[in-house]
Write a structure and sequence with these properties.
Length: 468
């Protein structure tokens, strides 16, 4: 099909892209549990938000949780409150929807930048089928949301820069709006990642004055109007001094790696399309003067500067590369637009591999999900009574909190003395503890409990006892 034929069938192409990517993304999205520490933590914060009715202060196991701003928790909690509980599907839904929208946006951008629907389709397909994008689309984390908002911020900036002045302000305001949404997703990174790239692009274009133009000043105001209300409501709840103390007590960034970490990770995270990076690098170098004086230079600056910023930043995690993948997909799609047949063959093979990998994980998860298995063992015995955990590790508490019951909390008991007296009169009291801890209980204290059952769990055994 020639380019004219592609333009005539553009509606079908867009519809096919939306339907096919949606089917692939949402296939068995509900099948795996949330055993990973981060997945459970974010889902649990959303669950406690629903249970408490407090949508301003995120809480995790009852304590204020400020490792991440609240947008992801809101997006999980909103449909979950309608459904009645937080499920693995609803916890992953924001990421899947963000990835779905991102694929469509990249198609539109590629089509506009290269004047070809084929380029847009290939760009979208490359991004969609890259390892990290596909994996993060099926996870309950903040990274895919942040990637979408950064992508939208750049896309609307590009539209504003390339369009006539009458519509420019609206596009620029939209760009800053999505930066604000990024701040609500992952804090200052939602602004500190895209804005220096936009600023450098304008400096390169000798239009740095736009940074203090009326359009941008309105944009800064829009960003603040999006990001500040939640912060002000939070400070109003706790006061300025206590709010600062809570932020200082938060340590969300702890993972470190060598400075060359991303030089290695990019090959796996953008796989298998990373095999084309040397070819892309040679092509960009040969056409560097033409690219540098075109709108495509935004993609080049986007990738290079973001990669450098991530490398300089001492906390290095592979998934932080996710916002750096769209510009690579765009540049590859623009140069592969005449290789549609080859692309489709590669795309179908890659997606098949990723789906087989997901199915293998699902089968393993269904038979090796310790949190769900433990819950199934305990629920028939406890019959809705309050379950206390004693000297359980944090991952066990997280799994029980999430799977045991959507409305019953699981407090950590710091000492067994007097536990029976603290339990509600007329109701059974239950305590779950590691077997090694149960064996060390003093004789007098152990007589306060009736042994019920030993339950295999991961690499140890847990003991369920009932108070006398």
């Amino acid at each position: 099909m020639d380019e004219k034929g592609w333009r005539l069938d553009e509606g079908r192409i867009i519809g096919g892209l939306i339907v096919v990517s949606g089917i692939i993304l949402f296939f068995n999205l509900w099948a795996r549990s949330l055993e990973n520490h981060d997945y459970l933590r974010y889902a649990e914060v959303a669950r406690e938000m629903i249970r408490s009715g407090d949508w301003i202060v995120p809480r995790y196991n009852g304590a204020v949780y400020l490792d991440k701003p609240p947008l992801l928790f809101w997006l999980i909690a909103l449909p979950s409150s309608i459904y009645g509980s937080v499920t693995p599907f609803l916890a992953r839904l924001p990421s899947a929807l963000a990835a779905w929208i991102g694929v469509f946006v990249l198609f539109l951008w590629g089509k506009r930048m290269y004047g070809s629907a084929r380029a847009g389709l290939i760009s979208a397909g490359i991004l969609f089928s890259s390892y990290q994008y596909f994996s993060q689309a099926r996870s309950a984390k903040t990274d895919m949301l942040l990637c979408l908002f950064i992508l939208l911020a750049f896309y609307f900036f590009y539209l504003g820069y390339e369009t006539i002045r009458r519509k420019r302000a609206l596009f620029f305001l939209s760009s800053f709006f999505f930066m604000g949404m990024g701040v609500l997703t992952k804090g200052p990174f939602g602004f500190l990642m895209p804005f220096p790239i936009l600023a450098l692009f304008l400096i390169k274009e000798k239009k740095a004055r736009m940074l203090v133009s009326g359009e941008f000043i309105l944009g800064y105001m829009v960003l603040l109007l999006v990001a500040l209300p939640w912060l002000l409501l939070f400070v109003r709840r706790f006061g300025l001094e206590e709010s600062i103390a809570l932020v200082r007590a938060t340590h969300p960034l702890s993972r470190q790696a060598p400075f060359y970490f991303y030089l290695i990770e990019i090959w796996g995270q953008f796989a298998p399309w990373s095999l084309l990076l040397p070819w892309l690098g040679i092509y960009v170098w040969r056409e560097r003067f033409e690219i540098w004086h075109s709108g495509e230079s935004l993609c080049l600056i986007w990738f290079v500067l973001l990669f450098l910023l991530l490398t300089i930043f001492q906390v290095r995690v592979s998934r932080y590369l996710l916002p750096a993948l769209p510009p690579l997909a765009l540049m590859l799609g623009g140069r592969w637009k005449k290789k549609v047949s080859y692309f489709f063959l590669c795309f179908m093979a890659i997606v098949l591999v990723w789906q087989i990998r997901e199915i293998i994980w699902m089968r393993k998860d269904l038979s090796h999900s310790p949190g769900r298995v433990l819950t199934m063992e305990i629920k028939p015995l406890v019959e809705g009574a309050l379950l206390h955990g004693y000297q359980l590790d944090i991952s066990t508490l997280e799994e029980l909190n999430f799977y045991f019951d959507p409305v019953v909390p699981l407090p950590l008991v710091k000492g067994l003395e007097g536990l029976s007296a603290r339990l509600e009169k007329g109701r059974k009291g239950w305590v779950l503890m590691p077997e090694r801890v149960y064996k060390t209980l003093p004789g007098q204290e152990s007589q306060s409990f009736t042994f019920i059952k030993k339950i295999p769990y991961k690499k140890e055994r847990l003991v369920l006892v009932q108070t006398n």
